């Protein structure tokens, strides 16, 4: 996949390094890691990286319609992966999560006051 494939490999490596560092410092079980995105896939976005040509049979949005810049599901349905050993058990969950609620949820989780002051 050219430069885009390289970027995915780099992100994977970086996340691995973060997890490894948490483990080395015994912080893994005291740290919530959240991996998410702000939008769905985009290919033809003006970069000269051959993303469309290198795509082949791969469908970045899977069976969903749309992508970045779209109100369709593929534009707003993004990964939301959490990792917290000893607290979150590995599983797949089809629940709907709104990122707009993330701040309030994390405030409650950490016993912090939130809202209009």
End-to-end separation in angstroms reads: 48 Å
Number of domains: 1
What's the total helix number?
4
Average pLDDT confidence is: 90
Question: Which strand order spans the largest sheet, edge to edge or round the barrel?
Answer: 1-2
Q: How would you sum up the major sheet? A: 2 strands, antiparallel
Number of strands: 2
The percent of residues in helical segments reads 25-40%
Radius of gyration: 18 Å
The shape, in one word, is globular
- The string of secondary-structure elements, in order, is HEHHEH
Q: Which segments are poorly predicted (pLDDT under 50) over 5 or more consecutive residues?
A: none
Structural class: mainly alpha
What is the percentage of strand-forming residues? 5-15%
Descriptive notes:
With 117 residues, the chain is mainly alpha-helical. The chain has one domain (2-92). It is 33% helix and 7% strand. It contains 4 helices and 2 strands. Strands 1-2 form a two-stranded antiparallel ribbon. The longest helix is centred in the N-terminal third of the chain and has 23 residues, at 2-24. 3% of the residues are buried.
Topology:
Blueprint: H1 2-24, E1 33-36, H2 51-54, H3 73-76, E2 80-83, H4 102-109
């Amino acid at each position: 996949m050219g430069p885009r494939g390289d970027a995915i490999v780099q992100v994977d490596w970086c996340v691995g390094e973060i997890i490894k560092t948490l483990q080395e410092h015994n912080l893994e079980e005291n740290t919530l890691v959240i991996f998410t995105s702000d939008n769905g896939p985009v290919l033809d976005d003006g970069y000269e990286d051959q993303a469309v040509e290198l795509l082949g049979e791969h469908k970045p949005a899977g069976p969903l319609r749309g992508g970045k810049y779209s109100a369709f599901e593929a534009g707003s349905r993004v990964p939301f992966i959490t990792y917290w050993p000893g607290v979150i058990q590995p599983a797949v969950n089809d629940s709907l999560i709104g990122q707009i609620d993330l701040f309030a949820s994390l405030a409650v989780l950490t016993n912090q006051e939130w809202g209009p002051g």
